[in-house]
């Protein structure tokens, strides 16, 4: 069973408001050490890491490690039903497909509970190593949010440069350019208003302002923001949540030479690559190559057909027809029977074959003289002569 009780319910509401626009669905990992989340945005450009340690809750119980998949937009709607001073309790049974949110007023005169269905979300937990950065800037979180908002009206990108003079935020757009410099300032009455810069090497990196403005939505969680920069690592924008944890945003830098969004260019290049690979396929079936194959097949078919026609025609008409009996195929007999008169005596009758058949069978032989057929004796001793016209 998993159960946590948070007296400052508004803190959980602020956490959801800061990440719900960046991440749609995510798994909350619950363990004995705390309540955590790690997820990437839909374009897989930015990474969010959240940790709320178990010591920061009034009551925390986790019998075994569980992962609860939730839609962050729906979870934020649930938490909006709670007052800023309400005590928030989250419960989930082992093997259950629902999670329960319970909101209690400080005077205990009102208790509300809501149940939400859990989701099955496939996600990989990335191991983020601890790294040393070339420059670390700590500044008031509201000041960072204001700078990102102001630069967003000028251009789409921000160049963050850390030098001995301080940290400079620059942007360039169609209407002009903007440069904002924040120098180190530690002599202030309130520690949260101080600007502290730790620099090992000079750093200058470019980032998309739309992501920076999204990160700045976590400003209500902490009075200060920490920006860690390095030339070969993503930038880390961290907001500490009181003494119980943090929310960190990771973003890869953009290439300065590219005026357009490198994330969009990377996607287009990835799509363009298969097109280059498929080009050779267009040359496989040209018309010039197909014609010889068809012609060769046609020639072979014609050569094979001609002998068949000649072989069929030759048995019907023989060039040496003298002293031989004319043989007519059954197929011809069936056609010629109506024209031949049947007579048992058959005396003095001549078998006639229409010229149409002769013209079809051998047009070139029409001019030949009549051929005498060997007489055929009948039973009565008379002879019948068969003439062919």
TrEMBL record:
One of its GO terms (cellular component) is PCNA complex. GO terms for molecular function: DNA binding; DNA polymerase processivity factor activity. InterPro entries: DNA_clamp_sf, Pr_cel_nuc_antig, Pr_cel_nuc_antig_C, Pr_cel_nuc_antig_CS, Pr_cel_nuc_antig_N. It comes from the Eukaryota. Residues 1-125 form the Proliferating cell nuclear antigen PCNA N-terminal domain. Keywords: DNA replication, DNA-binding, Nucleus. One of its GO terms (biological process) is leading strand elongation. Residues 351-380 have a biased composition (Basic and acidic residues). Signal peptide: none annotated. Residues 329-389 are annotated as: Disordered. Residues 127-254 form the Proliferating cell nuclear antigen PCNA C-terminal domain. The keyword DNA-binding applies. This protein is an auxiliary protein of DNA polymerase delta and is involved in the control of eukaryotic DNA replication by increasing the polymerase's processibility during elongation of the leading strand. NCBIfam families: pcna. Belongs to the PCNA family. This is DNA sliding clamp PCNA. It comes from Rhododendron simsii.
